[in-house]
Amino acid sequence: MGKRPDRRESFVVRLYVADREATAVRAIANLEALCREFLPSGCELEIIDILREPQRGLDDSIMVTPTLIKLAPPPVRRIFGDLSNRGRLLDALGLTGLELSPPRP
């Protein structure tokens, strides 16, 4: 079993969406909020619209949108949907054990 990711590690994620559909808008907002609150060292986020860049979706075998691919730190993981379940999203990103609300200053 690999080590648990550290909040300070840089996260690299790729989010595939189809235009500005409602689930895409929610997924983007949910992911940006999670990055701000739980990844203080930053989160490199690439958003790819498969309607504008279909080859990118084919290259990553995207079958549904929104699809989030966590590229770093390893292991690579895929998460589907609007990313609204924060606890499940933290778990899928390998951040289990972090508080579900941001720390107070």
Shape: globular
Task: Write down the CATH class.
Answer: Alpha Beta
Total helical segments: 3
CATH topology category name: Glutaredoxin
Helix vs. strand class:
alpha+beta
Instruction: Give the mean pLDDT.
Output: 86
Q: Indicate how many domains the architecture comprises.
A: 1
Query: Element order, helices and strands?
Result: EHEHEEH
Short description:
Helices cover 29% and strands 23% of the residues.
Question: Could you outline the blueprint of secondary structure elements for this entry?
Answer:
Layout: E1 11-17, H1 22-38, E2 43-49, H2 54-59, E3 67-72, E4 77-80, H3 86-92
Parallel strand pairs: 1-2
Antiparallel strand pairs: 1-3, 3-4
Characteristics of this structure?
single chain; 3 helices; Glutaredoxin; 105 residues; four-stranded mixed beta sheet; globular
Tell me what the structure shows.
With about 100 residues, the protein is α+β, with helices and mostly antiparallel strands. The protein has a single domain (about 10-90), classed as Glutaredoxin (3-Layer(aba) Sandwich), CATH 3.40.30.10. It is about 30% helix and about 25% strand. Strands 2-1-3-4 form a 4-stranded mixed sheet. Residues about 1-5 and about 100-105 have low confidence and may be disordered.
